[in-house]
Amino acid sequence: MREKNDSGRGGADASSDFSASTNSASENSVSPAGTDSLLPPLLLGTYTPKIDAKGRVALPAKFRQQLGSGCVLARGQERCIYLLPFAEFRRIAAQIQRTSLSNKAARSYLRVFLSGAVDQEPDKQGRVTLPSMLRDYAHISKDIVVIGVGTRAEIWNKADWDTYLDQQEDGYSDIADDVLPEVAF
User: Would you say residue 38 lies in a domain?
Assistant: First the structure.
């Protein structure tokens, strides 16, 4: 059975308060000693904000601090929306663009990824607007989940996220050796 982390508190009100979560500020910027300035801050945790009638979502407070002046929203894999700090978006875009223009798959990916990208600056309440094109792509309506995935966050339709997580949890332990061959826990 899966235990849910809704900002560290139970009840319906926990989904709208982002000032507290189960991750402390030091845990939210995990990095080896002495390398803090070399590594980007990590976006961690699971949050369940509400989306308003205008398509705006209040970002978790910790994410706002790490995003600084803004972010880029883009189509993600598995029908989610990527929320990327500007620096991470530029790194990914540059990496994709270095791929040969003769590579048809790279051209296709670049077109889809960049054509759906929108830069956003959170308003005074820390909200960003999810464009209708991205909401349609990710099946976003009322109930959403925002998850930290290291150097990016992902915004999911809650039902899609729950289904995805349920499907992945059984194999989670089995794939650890393939994904993390050199990491000892």
Answer: no
